[in-house]
Write a structure and sequence with these properties.
The protein is of the alpha+beta class. The chain has 3 helices and 9 strands. Strands 1-2-3-4-8-9-6-5 form an 8-stranded mixed barrel.
Length: 227
């Protein structure tokens, strides 16, 4: 009986060890993929666009940069808001997904209110970097960026980060491309940080990410878009 018990405990220990090992590998794999910045070599030059050999899929619509932060990514847009949750800009499966434009928005960013989504990854990867904007001083010091639109890079918008707030994912006022008027009112009433020194615009881009792994809360960072 002792021999059977010892063998049973050994199997239990081995299975537990394999589960832990897999968990560590999975965490490393997700982080490694999220931290892969090889795509930066395909970053477009304004007016010249992405290189001809760039393997970015046909769903590529823009390149987003928030100056002096980790946010420097290609922006994709699928025919629905699920496609790029677990697909990288090369069209490959990836748990870290891509930064992507709401499928209801115009791909040329001519809408008054455009919404970008990205996973909240550890160590400031992807839109995990948005956490820093909860600090007012940080937001004021990292308030500029650019949006290079189109594969040919023919249109470049300057960005001015001006507000940060938390909302519920079911809050239609904040996550509806047609609700610019309601969004401006919501920001004024509920934003945790507002930089009133930023020049205003009637064109707004919001960056959205989840806050906790299992939560309906979202962290939003708002940017004015300048022609």
């Amino acid at each position: 009986m002792n021999i059977i018990y010892e063998k049973f405990m050994f199997v239990v220990f081995l299975v537990a060890l394999l589960i832990v090992a897999y968990g560590l590998y999975d965490a490393w794999y997700v982080y490694n993929k999220a931290g892969d910045d090889s795509y930066l070599k395909y970053k477009p030059i304004p007016g010249q666009g992405v290189p001809n050999d760039a393997p970015l899929t046909e769903d590529y619509v823009a390149w987003l940069t928030i100056d002096d932060t980790n946010i420097d990514y290609p922006v994709m847009q699928g025919d629905n808001n699920m496609k790029y949750l677990n697909m990288n800009p090369y069209g490959e499966y990836s748990l870290s997904g891509s930064i992507f434009l709401d499928s209801r928005n115009s791909a040329d960013f001519t809408d008054d209110y455009s919404i970008l989504y990205g996973h909240h990854m550890e160590y400031g990867k992807m839109f995990g970097a948005l956490d820093d904007f909860l600090d007012k001083k940080y937001m004021n010091e990292h308030s500029t960026g650019t949006l290079i639109v189109g594969r040919d890079g023919s249109k470049v918008y300057d960005l001015g980060v001006f507000a940060c707030m938390k909302v519920n994912v079911y809050d239609k006022k904040a996550l509806d491309p047609d609700s610019l008027e309601n969004v401006e009112k919501l920001i004024k009433e509920e934003a945790s940080n507002i930089n009133t020194s930023i020049e205003k615009s009637n064109h707004i881009l919001v960056l959205s990410t989840c806050i906790e792994p299992v939560s309906t809360n979202r962290l939003l960072v708002f940017c004015y878009v300048y022609e």
